[in-house]
Amino acid sequence: MYNKKECVAMLLAGGQGSRLYALTQTVAKPAVPFGGKYRIIDFPLSNCINSGIDTVGVLTQYQPLVLNEYIGNGQPWDLDRIHGGVHVLPPYQKASGADWYSGTANAIYQNIPFIDRYDPEYVIVLSGDHIYKMDYNKMLSFHKEKNADATIAVLDVPKEEASRFGIMITDDEDNIIDFEEKPANPRSTLASMGIYIFTWSKLKAYLIANEEDENATKDFGKNIIPDMREAGEKLVAYRVDGYWKDVGTIDSLWEANMDLINPNIPIDLYDPAWKIYSRNPVMPPQSIGKNAVIQNSMVTEGCYIDGSVEFSMISDGVTVEEGAVIYDSILMPGCVVKKGAKVEYAIVGENSVVGENAQIGMRPENMENRDDWGVAVVGHNVNVSDGAEVAPKDIISEDI
Amino acid sequence: MGVNMSKVLGLIFANMHDTTVGELTKKRTMGSVLFGGRYRLIDFPLSNMVNSGIPEVGVITKSNYQSLLDHLGSAREWDLARKKGGLYILPPFGSGESTLYRGRLEALYGAINFIKHSLAEYVVLSDCNIVTNMDFKPIVEQHVKSGADVTVVTHTGNYTSDETNGSTVLNADEDGVVKSVLIKPDISGKCTLGLDVFVMKKDFLINMIQDLSSRGYVSFAKDVLQAKCGELKIMTYEYTKYFSRVINMLSYFKANQELLDTENARQVFLPKRPIYTKVSDNAPAKYDLDSNVKNSLIADGCIIEGEVENSILFRGVKVGKGTKVKNSILMQGTVVGRDAQINYLITDKNVKISDNHILSSEPSYPMYVGKGASV
Questions:
Q1: Of A150, A174, A175, A180, which is closest to residue A162 (Cα–Cα)?
Q2: Pick from A20, A94, B218, B238: most CB atoms within 10 A?
Q3: Which residue from A75, A293, A299 is facing B284, i.e. has the nearest CB?
């Protein structure tokens, strides 16, 4: 008999991420490349292991192949354990039939047996589409101190941005007394970060009750949290400082990558005490050619750079040929930008090829009408032929 | 003709040539000498064996092997953490007559039980001083086909006396049968150099080790290749792909610099036959506003604010604002402050060079700064 686990993490990674369009056609959102050598899911997984949480269930159902292969046995995150470790949990067939996960709460509900195997006191629910560094253990201590039934991590956001988030209204002691989803006139600036800690016995009861209610949407934000509040359970807000970003849209994904390059944004990937782990590619060091100019950028192993790279995020195994210009852009793993091509304010997906003298995206200052400006996107495995153009805001997923 | 490579045992000598790069091996084995921005020299023979389909490898060590153990760990990164086969580290046995060995033969004697237990039919032996992407399969195939007792991998070319002195020079006939062997000769010009990679049948190797060791012989080159070259059938395998050899500090410097030539790098770093190494989870390299990097190899985890040219930067190297690094090799964790100038320098791990320093040497004699030193 193994020891029980105090806290089990459940990572919601099933979202399709439809607002990332071409970038999530064949991969689930948490498996989208980020920050040169990471995938989005590396952040919550690394946070777990750095916080001492060694049992993680990853709930997937959309395009799980890449994600499954990426997580594998969990070794890159030190999550290959005899008892515990990381487990990918797709929906499965039971004696009573088979169901897709119909909501975030239903996904956890269907995996009650998984959680019960570890007999935990607490369960932390995380999402697979946020970029941040956080010690969950501190939040757990807070949950215990407050003797709470549910603790929701919140970030104090600027008032003008508050209407984009789920907003928590609290009393003087950080008890949550009300909440509003994307309110037009927010009553508070405490935004939910999508990180919840529950006392497992309580959560389990509410999950089961919610499942029995045929009208429920089986969602944490819409059902479980409101149900718990109505029943008078103790809900508290845990305030977090520091960098946190939802990368659910093309613009926010692009911004979050640029934030890593910006020295004024407080997310440090070079801190040896809180490393972000990833499945490392087996590639030689980056080779910088005689004609290269690289400034204000991050470049990863396996690259060959002989062109100009500024304000950009260059992932592993990328080639930038002589005379090519990369400006304010993200090149995902394995892509090739040929001679004379320009990639400006754009995202180029994995293993795509930008032909000679092609133009992807444009700098806003070169636009006639600034309103037409936006980040251009080339999906994964796309060939852009020599001299072709992809306009700002365009998203292509087929060869042109 | 196909050879079943799963019936081949690999043996790597981690300490051979230690004395040739004395400063670099003061606190480590030859196999754990850092190379090429993110590797250690043992990564090359070890990855080559794995990529050639060899499922079982023994690494024969002698001394200073802490860094080697740390590097290899469970050998998962080389895909050698296996139930069947995998990696075995063979430190000196240290009892009875076998202690710290003096030559390859004596080293093999210390590992004889390991070799006996292996189910392999053939053995590939390699040192750690060759940087190349070598496929052992055609070498074993030629060995089997030719019926040789020993196959020696060689390269024929024009060598200086510096290069031959410290190596083995072989004279072979047109068929590649070795007729005579010179050990550490002082000659120059066109000659056939042994690259210290050998293939033998396992049973032949065991018999030879037992026979010669019982009579007090210790050296493979002298007591086998040279002394028995009339008696045994010793064949050469002429290697024609790109390689570089580390035989002294200057050749170490040059071998690193040669990787800056993309053609050489392409031949060593083949995507389908990758060189594996220990993973260290560094973030991508960061290039600052005023950085200017040309013709260099840069590993992950570097933060570059100054200029870097014709240089190799290992993981986690920092180059401060206004600093110029030229023609240098900066190993893991080297930190160069602001407005410093560096030319023809090799810094070992975790060296600190403070602001405004000028350290310059000559192409023929790159300056070496030892592990952890502060300048």
A1: A180
A2: A20
A3: A299
Q: Quick one: B172 and B291 in the same domain? A: no
Chain-chain contact of A299 with B281 (C-beta, under 8 angstroms): no
Report the alpha-carbon distance of residue A188 to residue A337 in Å, rounded: 46
Range of the domain at B246: 5-268
Instruction: Determine whether the interchain pair A286/B294 forms a contact, defined as Cβ–Cβ distance below 8 Å.
Output: no
Terminal Cα distance for chain B, rounded = 58
Cβ pair A283:B274 closer than 8 A: yes
Could you tell me the CATH number of the domain that includes residue B329?
A: 2.160.10.10
Structure tokens at B3: 């050879």
Q: In the listed set B241, B268, B295, which residue is the last one of a domain according to the structure?
A: B268
Same structural domain for residues B250 and B298? no
| Residue A287 touches chain B, beta carbons under 8 Å | yes
Domain shared by B257 and B298, yes or no? no
Q: Per the domain annotation, does B277 fall within a domain? A: no
Residue written as tokens 């459940």? Answer: A10
Q: For residue B278, is it within any domain?
A: no
Contact check, Cβ <8 Å, B36/A299: no
Q: Say how many CA atoms lie within 13 Å of A269 toward its Cβ.
A: 29
Do B114 and B176 have their domain in common? Answer: yes
> How far is it, in rounded angstroms, from Cα B55 to Cα B88?
11
User: Which residues in chain B have their CB less than 8 angstroms from residue A264's CB?
Assistant: none
Domain identity same for B257 and B291: no
Cβ-proximal residues to B302 (8 Å cutoff; 6+ apart), any chain: B285, B286, B313, B315, B316, B317, B318, B319
Token pair for A359: 């133009």
Number of H helices, E strands in chain A: 8, 33
Closest-CA distance of chain A to residue B351, Å? 18
- The first and second tokens of residue A387, run together, are 């001299």
Residues 6+ apart with CB under 8 A from A281: A37, A300, A301, A302, A316, A317, A333
Cβ contacts of B275 within 8 Å, gap of 6 or more: A282, A284, B39, B43, B44, B47, B133, B268, B269
The pTM for the full model equals 0.91
Could you tell me if residue B211 is inside a domain? yes
Summarised one tens digit per residue, pLDDT across range A337-371 is 999 999 999 999 999 999 999 999 999 988 888 88
Asked if residue B361 is part of any domain, the answer here is yes
Q: SS3 of B139, please?
A: helix
**Total tally of structural domains belonging to chain B:** 2
Give the span between the Cα atoms of B53 and A365, in whole angstroms: 56
Task: List per-block mean pLDDT (blocks of 10 residues) for chain A, which spans 400 residues.
Answer: 87 81 86 94 96 95 85 94 92 76 89 94 94 96 96 93 90 91 90 95 94 84 90 95 91 94 90 93 94 96 96 97 97 97 96 97 89 92 95 91
B135 and B35, same domain (yes or no) = yes
Residue in B281, B291, B303, B350 to test binding to A, most A beta-carbons within 10 Å: B281
The domain boundary, picked from B207, B235, B268, lies at B268
CA pair distance A324, A93, nearest whole angstrom: 51
Q: Are residues B236 and B306 in the same domain?
A: no
Is residue A21 within 8 angstroms of chain B, CB to CB? no
Contact A295 B303 (CB under 8 A): no
Question: In this structure, what CATH number is given to the domain that contains residue B244?
Answer: 3.90.550.10
* Residue B205 and residue B98 share a domain: yes
Closest CB from A76, A270, A288 relative to B296: A288
User: Is the CB of residue B48 less than 8 Å from the CB of residue B269?
Assistant: no
Q: Please state, in angstroms and rounded to a whole number, the distance separating the CA atoms of residues B308 and B327.
A: 9
Q: Is the pLDDT of residue B101 over 70?
A: no
